[in-house]
Backbone:
């Protein structure tokens, strides 16, 4: 399993970024996928999850209305569109495969992780 995130960078408060995660080494279109982040000096924070076909999506409360998770199974790619960014969104963002059958048990944790991409929200 290989997960490679991209799209991070420096953005001003109120700005937008789109993160991508290129997946390989497994049947991406069969699996649920998640985004998880870690702010400097803090623990891991779950961001969002999407099921195999995009029909079921959940977000952490603080991301609702600002972040949008999506996927393109033809390209084996997961996305996270982030709008109205705040300084507290500064973190390393990880793409991850949840544990459980076909990545279904996202609420229990993650089995595979990418190396992350850094998002810095600052003026």
Residues:
């Amino acid at each position: 399993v290989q997960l490679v995130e991209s799209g991070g960078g420096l953005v001003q408060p109120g700005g937008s970024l789109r993160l991508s995660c290129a997946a390989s080494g497994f049947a991406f279109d069969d699996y649920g996928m998640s985004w998880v982040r870690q702010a400097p000096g803090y623990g891991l924070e779950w961001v969002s999850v999407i099921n195999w076909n995009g029909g079921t999506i959940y977000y952490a409360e603080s991301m609702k209305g600002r972040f949008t998770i999506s996927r393109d199974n033809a390209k084996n790619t997961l996305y996270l569109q982030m709008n109205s960014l705040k300084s507290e969104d500064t973190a390393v963002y990880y793409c991850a495969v949840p544990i459980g059958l076909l990545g279904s048990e996202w609420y229990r944790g993650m089995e595979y992780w990418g190396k992350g991409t850094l998002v810095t929200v600052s003026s």
The two ends are 37 Å apart (CA to CA). The mean pLDDT is 96. The CA atoms of residues 92 and 118 lie 4 Å apart. The chain has no helices and eleven strands.
